[in-house]
Amino acid sequence: MQSTIAILPGDGIGAEVTREAVKVLRAVEQKFGHDFALPEALIGGAGLDAENDPFPQQTADICADAAAVLLGAVGGPKWDSVPTESRPEKGLLRLRAALGVFANLRPVAPHPILSGASPIRADLLQGVDIMVVRELTGGIYFGKKERTADSATDVCTYTRPEIERVLRIAGKLAQGRKNKVTSVDKSNVLETSRLWREVTEELMPREFASVELEHLLVDAAAMHLLSRPADFDVIVTENMFGDILTDEASMLAGSMGMLPSASLNEGSVGLYEPIHGSAPDIAGQDKANPCATILSAAMLLRLSLGLEDESAAIEAAVNTVLSNGLRTGDIAAKGDQVVGTAAMGDAIAAAITA
Ligand code: IPM
Ligand code: MG
User: Fold this and answer.
1) What is the DSSP string of 260-299?
2) CB neighbours of 89 closer than 8 A, spacing ≥ 6?
3) Which of 72, 176, 274, 317 has the CB geometry, 3.0–4.6 Å to 292, for a possible disulfide?
4) Residues forming CATH 3.40.718.10 domain(s) in the chain
């Protein structure tokens, strides 16, 4: 049976990294005898330039018909002065909302071989294996926005059901891991965070009695992520805190270029994207690290298509290639030989079919 995976390259390095992920998906197809349809569609600045819309209707249709969506990155200086409603980023937010993917899973499991690429001491990185669950379709990203010449407003709203459903995802994940959930909020200042904490304190002991629950204020969490990263298991938090903390957490893995993500709803259709942005400074130069997107494709096969062996094969191939010493610039230490985006993708695809 043919499975359809919509490919949305987006902007900047998005095109380069998704190209490598497609290569790897084709290698999986060949190795395991699958048939993937991989239709491409425009999003972000690319959609804006071609269709005057960062999330064109045709893209919405292709995504609605797909089993899963793999996305590169959106945005860039070219569209900096575009009004809020048609910014490239708005296209991504509309896609997330259209798919209803409220839970964004961002695993942070640093590869020991890359500890030299992290600014954090290697002894602190030992045993680090974190799953950040970021609420993705609510909060300040989606609240009412107002702007006059001299004032600006961004409204942050959360409802009890929005908090409950993302907590359930976090609780279930923790049960399959180390049985610990750290909920991050700013309940000493924000009303939405007070509701978040209240709902967490009710739901977690009731539905996940065996899971240890810890609360951290977001400022403290930012510090603890660096001072004791190995103590975390699942971290669950609201949209904007999750955005910020996962860029920080990527430094544990050495580079944003290593961190994949999966955005899920209650069904099986998901959106998969690297956590990094479009990196306009290196776009089109064959310098980007495709691993985050390739590892996102691995999450896609596992979580949306139920292809566990295929997913594991991609993860193993990435590990093999890293163990063989291949490094893109972002994860290279002094003296390492640096390869380009395409060479990295070729090597990972070859390790799968080998
Ligand atoms: C991310 C990105 C996006 C976000 C941007 C591009 C809108 O930073 O996926 O982390 O803030 O969610
Ligand atoms: Mg971000």
Assistant:
1) --EEE-SSS-EEE--SS---TTTTTTT-S--HHHHHHHHH
2) 44, 54, 74, 75
3) 274
4) 1-101+269-354, 119-253
CA pair distance 139, 136, nearest whole angstrom: 8
Q: Which position among 61, 65, 145, 219 bears the catalytic label?
A: 219
pLDDT in tens, 131-166: 999 999 999 999 999 999 999 999 999 999 999 999
Residue closest to 285 by CA, chosen among 333, 321, 338: 338
CB of 92 closer than 6 angstroms to any ligand 1 atom: yes
User: Is the CB of 275 within 6 Å of ligand 1?
Assistant: yes
Q: How far is CA 154 from CA 31, 96, 141, in A?
A: 49, 19, 8
Give tens-digit pLDDT for 36-70: 999 999 999 999 999 999 999 999 999 999 999 99
**Ligand 1 close to Cβ of residue 75 (< 6 A):** yes
Pick the CATH number of 119-253 from 3.30.70.100, 3.40.718.10, 3.30.450.40, 3.30.565.10: 3.40.718.10
- Tell me the two tokens of residue 15: 């095109």
- Nearest atom in ligand 1 to 92's CA: 7
Please tell me the class of the 1-101+269-354 domain.
alpha beta
The closest residue, in CA terms, to atom 12 on ligand 1 is 243
Distance 243 CA to ligand 1 centre (A): 7
The answer to whether 123 is a known catalytic residue is: no
Non-local (6+) Cβ contacts of 279 within 8 A are 12, 13, 73, 288
**Catalytic member of 23, 53, 141, 330:** 141
